[in-house]
Automatic annotation (TrEMBL):
One of its GO terms (molecular function) is (3R)-hydroxyacyl-[acyl-carrier-protein] dehydratase activity. It comes from Phytohabitans houttuyneae. PANTHER family: HYDROXYACYL-THIOESTER DEHYDRATASE TYPE 2, MITOCHONDRIAL. This is Mesaconyl-C(4)-CoA hydratase. Transmembrane segments: none annotated.
Length: 267
């Protein structure tokens, strides 16, 4: 799949205002590419849960629940606002496993974003599909004694979750439809995994060495459920996200080298 568009200032302005931070000038902050080059599907292409029923990635079967499990992003150079960029996406691998909730299908989607003739961003997203009647993931482990040092806090209410869904063109109903979220086994609305990854990236941008020239790896370890204030703290190898109850829901680290994967011609 190939998409091309101008990195316009308006989505960056919208994300900055959502996060209540300064609007960027000529350079897009790392990881903010998630509000650009999106696949904007027709309503007729969506299933009852809001996810597309075909395309890239194509669901491995009908009626399966999709979860965002984590990923890796290498930022070779920041994207420039006002210039065209191209994203190429393809599936690099799939695998079948059996977990505590039953059969699982793991799928890795690779994307490469180029601008001005150079690859700027290479990323892999790990998705998990599970049966519709499978139980929802359990809560995360409690954090050890919180480390002393900088931290980020972000209050996420219903309006915030709705606006982030709109910015990322994510129609998955567990993030804004309380009845649907409960039908999928959650006690409340589910805070987006990409939002938690973005906040860990923001933590590195504001309080660390940044992301340019590095590979940022992140993993969602438990769902964050309910409107609340999330907290980003230093972790053993990077950062970690805690929910309002002090449970770890996401972790990140910087890893050497670029993300693995085949070229489009080998997929």
């Amino acid at each position: 799949m190939v998409r091309e568009e101008v990195i316009a200032p308006e989505p960056a302005e919208a994300l900055a205002n959502l996060l209540d931070v300064e609007i960027p000038g000529d350079v897009l902050p790392p990881m903010w590419h998630w509000v650009y080059l999106l696949e904007r599907r027709r309503t007729a292409d969506l299933g009852p849960d809001g996810h597309p029923t075909s395309g890239v990635p194509a669901p491995p079967g009908p009626g399966l629940k999709r979860m965002f499990a984590g990923g890796r992003v290498t930022t070779a150079r920041p994207l420039r606002i006002g210039r065209r960029a191209t994203r190429r996406s393809w599936v690099t691998r799939t695998s079948e496993k059996v977990g505590r909730s039953g059969p699982l299908t793991f799928l890795t989607l690779r994307g490469e974003i180029s601008q001005d003739g150079h690859v700027a961003i290479v990323e892999e997203s790990d998705l998990v599909y599970r049966a519709a009647d499978a139980s929802s993931p359990t809560a995360g482990a409690p954090a050890s004694e919180p480390p002393v040092g900088p931290r980020l806090r972000l209050a996420v209410d219903e309006a915030f979750l709705f606006r982030f869904s709109a910015l990322t063109y994510n129609a998955h109903r567990i993030h804004y439809d309380l009845g649907w979220a409960r039908a999928e086994g959650y006690a409340g609305l589910v805070v987006h995994g990409p939002l938690q990854a973005l906040m860990m990236a923001e933590f590195a941008r504001r309080h660390g060495d940044g992301l340019v020239g590095r590979t940022f790896a992140f993993r969602l370890v438990a769902p964050m459920v309910g409107t609340q204030t999330l907290t980003v703290l230093p972790g053993p190898d990077g950062a970690q996200v805690l929910d309002a109850g002090g449970q770890i829901t996401a972790r990140s680290e910087f890893v050497p080298g670029n993300v693995a994967g085949d070229s489009p011609g080998q997929a």
